[in-house]
Request: fold
Amino acid sequence: MNAEKNVLQAVELGLEKKAYDLQLLDVRELSSLTDYLLIASGRSDRQVSAIAESIRIGLKDLGVSPLAYEGIDQGRWALLDYGDFMVHIFQPAVRSFYDLEGLWSEAPLVPLADSGTA
Reply:
């Protein structure tokens, strides 16, 4: 599995559903659990769920299925675990509370052409 290629595809799928403030962290040197963390925001329960489902289905169509996923139905925080990378989609208040970027502050950011900052 090409983790970087697949996580970048997840970025594109998230942006298609208007995910914003995407951050891709390279945690290969810091974690034995995964290589990359993709963190994104959605503005509502429905949008968080739609972003997560779009990524899950879009990658599945490419033959890449998550090992596990949680929170898609609730829509406050969705997690898709692909082993080599994990995708976290939050509503802003939940993202701020858990502060994964702060927790992984030593991880280098992977530059993204369009992080959906607007």
